[in-house]
Amino acid sequence: MIILTTTYGDIEIELNMDKAPVSSKNFLRYCQEGFYEDTIFHRVIDGFMIQGGGHTEDMTEKETHAPIVNEANRGLKNLTGTIAFARTDAPHSATAQFFINLDNNDFLDHTGKTNSGWGYAVFGKVTAGMDVVSNIGKAMTGIKKGHDDVPLDTIKINKVTIVD
């Protein structure tokens, strides 16, 4: 279990090592390295998702490890409260940025092995603190340094705790 301590409160996440081992180990690695501490939720869309894990407060993008293989084809769905890796248009481009679904977003699920069909790999779920996630989703947003949907008040990950 992982606890993200944010400026809005704690979010407890359970990883799914069975169905998404590569993604879960990748997330855990970044947590162990302290990578997520002092990063922000930089993209928030109420009713859709909250995204974080890659930018500092001044919107500088942090340097990451190499991209991982996309495990969206392993059966996990983008349901409310699940956590998945963000990526570019290339299916196998996820590194550190993640998002938590605020709704059942089935259009993000795997439908085929094409660029548009690969989907976004779910690797865990929120087990406590969904109220915190929902509150983050309601944050007022705007444009900052060319990025849309950035919370006007910084929402930071202050600490990451790994619980065995």
From TrEMBL:
EC code(s) of this entry: 5.2.1.8
Domain spans labelled PPIase cyclophilin-type: 1-162
Protein name: Peptidyl-prolyl cis-trans isomerase
UniProt cross-references to InterPro entries, sorted A to Z: Cyclophilin-like_dom_sf, Cyclophilin-type_PPIase, Cyclophilin-type_PPIase_CS, Cyclophilin-type_PPIase_dom, E_coli_cyclophilin_A-like
Protein family membership: Belongs to the cyclophilin-type PPIase family.
UniProt keyword list: Isomerase, Rotamase
SUPFAM superfamilies in alphabetical order: Cyclophilin-like
Top EC class of this enzyme: isomerase
Keyword Ribonucleoprotein: no
GO MF term (any one): peptidyl-prolyl cis-trans isomerase activity
Record's keyword annotation contains Isomerase: yes
Catalytic reactions on record: [protein]-peptidylproline (omega=180) = [protein]-peptidylproline (omega=0)
A Pfam family the protein falls into: Pro_isomerase
Function per UniProt: PPIases accelerate the folding of proteins. It catalyzes the cis-trans isomerization of proline imidic peptide bonds in oligopeptides.
Organism for this UniProt entry: Vibrio chaetopteri
